[in-house]
Amino acid sequence: MLATGPNGAGKTNLLEALHVATQGFSPRTRNDRQLIRFGSEAARVAVNGRRGHAALEAVVKLEAGAGKHASLNGAPLRAVEQLRGELTTLVFTPDRLGVVKGAPAARRAYFDRALGRLSPARAQLPADYGAAVAQRNASLRRVAVGASTREAIAPWTQQLADLGSQLVAARREALALIGPAFVEHAAAFGLDAAELRYDGEPPTVEQLEQRLSRDLERGLTGAGPHLDDVLVLAAGRDLRSFGSQGEQRLAVLALLLAEADLVTARRGASPLLLLDDVLSELDPARRRTLAACVAGCGQALLTATDPAMLPADPDQLVEVRAGTAR
Ligand SMILES: Nc1ncnc2c1ncn2[C@@H]1O[C@H](COP(=O)(O)OP(=O)(O)OP(=O)(O)O)[C@@H](O)[C@H]1O
Ligand SMILES: [Mg+2]
Predict the structure, then answer these.
(1) Which residue's CA is minimally distant from atom 29 of ligand 1?
(2) Which one, out of 124, 158, 198, 226, has a CA that is 20 to 30 A from the CA of 114?
(3) Residue 65's pLDDT band (boundaries 50, 70, 90)?
């Protein structure tokens, strides 16, 4: 499906609404108030579709001051987050380029979320590890100001080593799954010998104890997977520093399509793909590759200011004008 219309017409709004209805949150902002129409107190978004052969209706309601509520086929969900366990939507927005060209934190956050999507049982692990790091850092600072003893740090060091080792193992597994499909999609886009490289090592209690004096000085834990990076390479070049804008975009797309393949294989249903402004900066050959690829992988919504940017006839063309879709 292609949504077209001039700048400011509401294409991104439409895409965002589909994300909210299927995942319970916006890919753009965590501030739900921004999702409610200016001057209104509430918003509601409902989508109807099919999952396999079964009909499906997801509804999300947002009320200023009263939070969010979701229902699936008429049954209210305990928490909006449950939608994510039921439906998968993968999104590309120009902000997502940060996954390749941004700081290591952006890549860690992205791959940790991908890990959660591929293995929902471990979705909480990155946050649990992050909490352990924060607790240990707080403990380091208490000792540094004399409000506590060095022994008080030990339980946090142990927990950090335990959760950190689990996180490194989970990341390695997730990257081993995503890697081959990423390489394949990247090659189709002309990115030769693409590679995801993760060198993270599980932190150990010994290693953390050895650097305790330095950590106490800085009030920060200076080793562990919260400092790791995942390199995104093509032909041995780090695309963060040496990729062109278009190559960085293609790498993000290849990651998204790789994840779509895995979700399809694991859940037996293709994810919904939302691709905002994806066609700009791609040359005609790459646009054709992308058009062929999305035509074969479930349902996809692309946005563009000009329908001619998509070098294929979409199954559905939606014209967006001043906030109305036709
Ligand atoms: N909460 C809101 N209530 C009403 N209007 C809003 C709200 N949030 C954003 N808008 C407006 O919606 C308009 C459409 O924005 P949108 O990002 O969807 O446009 P677009 O079609 O994607 O444009 P572009 O081609 O430039 O990306 C903007 O002018 C914006 O000011
Ligand atoms: Mg837009």
Answers:
(1) 8
(2) 158
(3) confident
Whether the predicted pLDDT of 323 surpasses 80: yes
Distance 89 CA to ligand 2 centre (A): 18
How many residues does the structure list for the chain? 326
d(Cα 91, Cα 108) in Å, to the nearest integer?
A: 17
Ligand 1 atom nearest residue 38's Cα: 3
d(CA 183, CA 115): 18
Name, in order, each residue with C-beta under 8 angstroms of 324's C-beta and a sequence gap of 6 or more.
Answer: 10
**Contact in structure between 22 and 89 (CB atoms under 8 Å):** yes
Write out the H or E segment, with its range, that includes residue 233: strand 230-234
CB neighbourhood size of 190 (10 A): 14
Mutate to test the pocket of ligand 1, among 2, 12, 320 (most ligand atoms within 8 A of CB): 12
Q: Tens digit of pLDDT for each residue in 204-215?
A: 999 999 999 999
Q: How would residue 53 be classed by pLDDT, with cut points 50, 70 and 90?
A: confident
Would you list the domain boundaries of the chain? 103-244
Residue 147's identity, in one-letter code, is A
Distance 7 CA to ligand 2 centre (A): 7
Q: Which residues pair with 197 in a beta bridge?
A: 231
Predicted confidence (pLDDT) at residue 52 exceeds the cutoff of 80 = no
Residue 10 Cβ inside 6 Å of ligand 1? The answer reads yes
For residue 165, is pLDDT > 80?
A: yes
Please state the atom number of ligand 1 nearest to the C-alpha of residue 36.
1
Radius of gyration for the alpha carbons in the chain, expressed in angstroms and rounded: 22
* Site to substitute for ligand 1 among 4, 13, 91, most atoms within 8 A of C-beta: 13
Q: Answer whether 0.90 is exceeded by the pTM.
A: yes
Q: Under CATH, domain 103-244 is a member of which superfamily? A: RecF/RecN/SMC, N-terminal domain (1.20.1050.90)
d(CA 17, CA 25): 9
Checking if the pLDDT of 141 tops 80, the result is yes
